[in-house]
């Protein structure tokens, strides 16, 4: 989540009371920052609807288990990579993104190719905690993606058992939460333990190129048939050009490590 390039503030994305949304560019990749060195998202200028960062691609791991979601929700807009991908590739689903910082929403619309809201897309400026606590959202979400970090990226800004319970409540009976855990080392155990208190099953993929751990939390424990998962991964690679075989390898390694 870091880069060595110097971010440049844009006055149009510096609404007071929130961290400014800034960008850098390098070799055809535009990076999003919140006024610091930490990378909050990225976009390939030649492929604006593709998911550029590996850990963000891994946030789509729920696709191994759900093929026809009706409602997909992102908590934390980032550079809108997950939102755009879900909106373009799941046209029968409604896609909701919750973002507290108006600067992030503005810069995503202006510089990260986020389309305007319509009947299938709803980007809301609001606190993610308020969204998951709202009874109107309970039992409505098939895939919930959580990537909530402030400008310092020391750890998720919402990480209590109460928050994860509210996320659980938002899921349909077989819904899945996929979340990114990054930051100071104690955050890993804290978040995993909080999720395990709430969800029926919690699995995660070991680190790859960076320190992000992507966690799948299931409202109802699935059966992990790896032959079926590899078959599904091949379909995902063919249809969506995502490295889903790596995800299955990671889940398999996780299971071996737990034994």
Automatic annotation (TrEMBL):
UniProt-annotated stretches for the region Disordered: 1-25
Residue spans of biased composition, Polar residues class: 1-12
Family matches, as InterPro entries: SAM-dependent_MTases_sf
Keywords, sorted A to Z: Polyamine biosynthesis
Superkingdom of origin organism: Bacteria
Pfam families, alphabetized: Spermine_synth (PF01564)
Signal recorded as keyword: no
Gene3D superfamilies: Vaccinia Virus protein VP39
SUPFAM superfamilies: S-adenosyl-L-methionine-dependent methyltransferases
Lyase as UniProt keyword: no
Name of the molecule in the record: Spermidine synthase
Lineage, uppermost ranks: Bacteria, Pseudomonadati, Pseudomonadota, Betaproteobacteria, Burkholderiales
